[in-house]
Write a structure and sequence with these properties.
- It is built from 9 helices and 7 strands; from the N terminus they run βαβαβαβαβαβααααβ.
- It has 255 residues and is α/β, with parallel strands linked by helices.
- Helix 1 packs parallel to helix 2 and helix 2 runs antiparallel to helix 6.
Length: 255
Amino acid sequence: MPLSSLLAVFAHPDDESLSAGGVLAQHAAAGARTAVVTATWAEDTQRAAELADALHILGAGAPRMLGYADARAPQSAPGSVRFCDAPLDESVRRLVMHIRAFRPDIVVTHDAYGGLTGHPDHLHTHRVTTLAVEAAGLDRLYPDTGAPWQPSALYLATHPHSAAQVLGAHLVRGGRTMYSVPDEWVTATVDVGPWLEQKIGAVLAHRTEVARGALPGRLAALPPADRAKLVSTEWYIRRDLVPTAATQTQLTPRR
């Protein structure tokens, strides 16, 4: 049986490791093709170099970057427009090109909240990705970006209410709103414990974020046992894109 290929689309370098590092490592270990598209930061920046290190640990190939600027860090892509300000059609077209080139069975991205923090780049990545996965299968849309390809399923990385309070207490700075979904909305709860070493290694590879005390840094400061408890489960909401193939493509790789 063929393995399900997986393309993850996230806003910033480190989002892929924090939100889906376990599933990426799981699929790569099982022999599936995996890759990551990152919406922001330029290829010649330190964050991009750290992303390359993280993807190597996860077995997800070389970075694929859309090259837009981070909404809160203009130095992320000098001379480029902020991702949130870019023309929507242009952003969708760029992502369609990557989808058609890689031809994934599964696409993974942020949920409609943009994860626990609701970062505007996360929200916009969700919007662009949901449009691009549909457009990629339509032959009259963006015909110059390659042959049409329709992924079978879109998985949204999310957090159920039952886990959000525990996660937020350790990882979200005081006073910030946390965004989570009803537990019954979660359609895939993945134990990524067997791939925890790769996931944590990939998170810590984002050394800039560790040093400045961002989320990777707060994880790095925790005792190993506490850190493992917080990141050993990943939650997803599945959206079927090809109903007739819904039973053929699952987030857990087939052997």
